[in-house]
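Please, structure for the following, as tokens.
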Amino acid sequence: MSLEAVYQRNEHHRGSKSGWLRAAVLGANDGLVSNASLLIGIAAAGKMDFLRVAGLAGIAAGSMSMAVGEYISVQSQADIEASDREMEREHLQVDPEGELEELTQIYIERGLPRDLAEQVAKTFTEKNALEAHLRDELGHHEIHKAQPFQAAAASAFSFALGAAIPLLGALVGTSSQKVALIIVFACLGLIATGVIGSRLAGSPLIKTILRVLIGGGLGMAITAGIGSLAHI
């Protein structure tokens, strides 16, 4: 097989998607469960007139909250990466010999004989010592680099998309049907989220769907119970 064919095959690896995919799946699932739970609670309490306003407010508030929360979280990760970079840069300036030996030991522990490990460490150090240490000592890779804006946008968009699904259920049917329709629409959305997440992540389909459904179902059931108590 040619090297070009190998490169094309490697494009199917999913590690480069981990940042935005995690944020998107979390946002969609949170949007479905939180807005469905909100609407179920209001409907169970008998406040049918507030469903549309509450659903739209839930979408707007939840999307902004997810975006800000995801940005702050991922930015913290980016700050840690930047701090590690500066710390490693200082170590290389203060003790280059010790850092070279540290890199050599890393390659020895990975299975290289001492002489070859020293040669590899010297070659990488001459090329770019900082990048070698960040990659092989700390595990920093460009494809896994924290992307705060990307994560925030993916989270906000997917939350809004997910939260809109149970709202559709609240806008159709009679008052007596609304709770059931919200649940049905939300469950369909959770199934779709599980299918999409499974396909993108390469995880088992049924296991992923069940995990999403059970978690979302528990959240909606608890909120419906609280809404019924409030109605009493």
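Confidence is low (pLDDT under 50) at residues 9-16. The chain is about 80% helix and 0% strand.
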